[in-house]
Design brief:
Oligomer: homodimer
Order of helices and strands of chain A: HEHHEEHHHH
Helix content of chain A: 55-70%
Strand order of the largest sheet of chain A: 1-3-2
Largest sheet of chain A: 3 strands, antiparallel
Number of helices of chain A: 7
Chain lengths: 169, 169
DNA sequence: CCTCGGTATATAAATCTTTATATACTTTCC
DNA sequence: GGAAAGTATATAAAGATTTATATACCGAGG
């Protein structure tokens, strides 16, 4: 729905190829978007046809020639307008969250095991994320910390026998 | 990708029609999934063809006849297996988060206005969410509280002039 | 020399999701 | 009696995303 705008945003930090954009998307979880290369290439084409980016081919020391895109004035304007649209609460859309929502359907040992695994993922992510130089990064840090605390509390509650939890109706 | 499994999960709480499932999905944000009715109906058909649910038509006191689906043994098994799969960190995928990631590109007054709007959305959601009877609900509460605190801190930082923030590269 | 791994671009097919539209039955209010 | 609102099902079309596959260039290691 808004991959083209995300790409315009990233191109605001300087010219880049489809490959660059794809790897940046994949590596920066604070960004709030991820997309496969197979989606990035067609999106760049559409942006090019729309006049929002310009293309320059450049030889690369390694690999085939790069197609570097850079913002045009129209692209910059389009991005600024999109950026100014009001923020909405994101609706979560993740299989993991659904599994969490039905955690209580599973036996206590399985619940504990799942929580521990998840907790470790969170801890890893927190380590890699640490360094909050922008609002979005600070947000991500805080949320990861809160979720880590939650996971520990849930695990402790299971261990202490007092489940605290009711079957979801 | 896993809407069918989400529907199986919801059907575990008792028989329901497509309409029921659609409204439950829309109303419960702790669930971690949302889907349009236009997606629910075909998904139920596929589940029916696959033998995971059974159908019974029932007259309704209001509106056209309901098609109520209930889990079969196969559906229950399929759900349990899906539920046992390991939890992964959800990759965010929301335009709002991308806008947040480029907040620093906007002038301070606009930043502040956006944050205030977002803050109010969070506060509303927090009020409607309060009552954590399951792990998933407790998680959602904690995360909303953490995000609210973040939004307030960012707004305060902008107001006090010390922006604390660097342009994203 | 040849394969492997990383860089780089791209398309096809399948699947998932959103948006728009259509239909129909019932109750309630005017 | 008619319009509106809520319940209920459904399809078509468009758009987004994932998965699979293909190609090609370069350097390093065996």
């Amino acid at each position: 729905m808004s991959l083209p705008h995300v790409l315009l945003a990233l191109l605001g930090r300087g010219p880049a190829s489809g490959w660059d954009l794809g790897t940046r998307l994949a590596k920066d979880p604070a960004l709030g978007w991820d997309a496969d290369l197979a989606q990035v290439y067609p999106a760049l084409r559409r942006l090019l046809r729309g006049g929002f980016v310009a293309l320059r081919r450049r030889r690369s020391s390694k690999g085939p020639p790069r197609r570097e895109y850079r913002l045009t004035a129209a692209g910059r304007r389009e991005f600024r307008e999109w950026l100014a649209e009001p923020l909405a609460l994101p609706k979560p859309h993740a299989a993991s969250l659904v599994r969490l929502a039905f955690l209580e359907r599973r036996p206590p040992e399985a619940r504990l095991a799942s929580l521990h695994l998840y907790r470790d993922l969170l801890a890893d992510e927190l380590e890699r994320a640490s360094s909050g130089t922008t609002a979005a990064r600070r947000r991500r840090l805080l949320l990861l910390e809160a979720e880590l605390a939650w996971a520990d509390a849930e695990a402790a509650a299971i261990l202490s026998g007092r489940t605290l939890s009711k079957e979801p109706r």
